[in-house]
Amino acid sequence: MYNNSSLEVLTVDDVADILHISKTIAYKLIRSGTIPGFKVNKRGWRVSKDSLAEYYKSQSKLQYNTP
């Protein structure tokens, strides 16, 4: 069963704004699979809120686990 947040999707612009990164970097992270995303047409990408939350958590853990 799906929860509401798994059905919510973000654009590349949204991802860039949320992470405070450039749109170019957001595209690179999505295309490489670092942030899981999916194409909705020839030029558009979307990312689920859950995928972005998992990416954010993994990055936070990396920052705080370094000596």
Query: How much helix, percentage-wise, in residues?
Result: 55-70%
How are strands sequenced across the largest beta sheet?
1-3-2
Tell me the overall shape.
globular
Beta-strand proportion: 5-15%
Low-confidence parts? none
Give a verbal description of the structure.
- This protein is of the alpha+beta class and 67 residues long.
- The chain contains four helices and three strands.
- It has helices at 4-7, 12-19, 23-31, 49-64, and strands at 9-11, 38-39, 45-48.
- A three-stranded antiparallel β-sheet has the order 1-3-2.
- The longest helix is centred in the last third of the chain and has 16 residues, at 49-64.
- The radius of gyration is 13 Å and the shape is globular.
- 15% of the residues are buried.
- The mean pLDDT is 87.
Q: Briefly, what is this?
A:
This protein is of the alpha+beta class.
Features:
67 residues, three-stranded antiparallel β-sheet, 3 strands
What's the layout of helices and strands?
Layout: H1 4-7, E1 9-11, H2 12-19, H3 23-31, E2 38-39, E3 45-48, H4 49-64
Antiparallel strand pairs: 1-3, 2-3
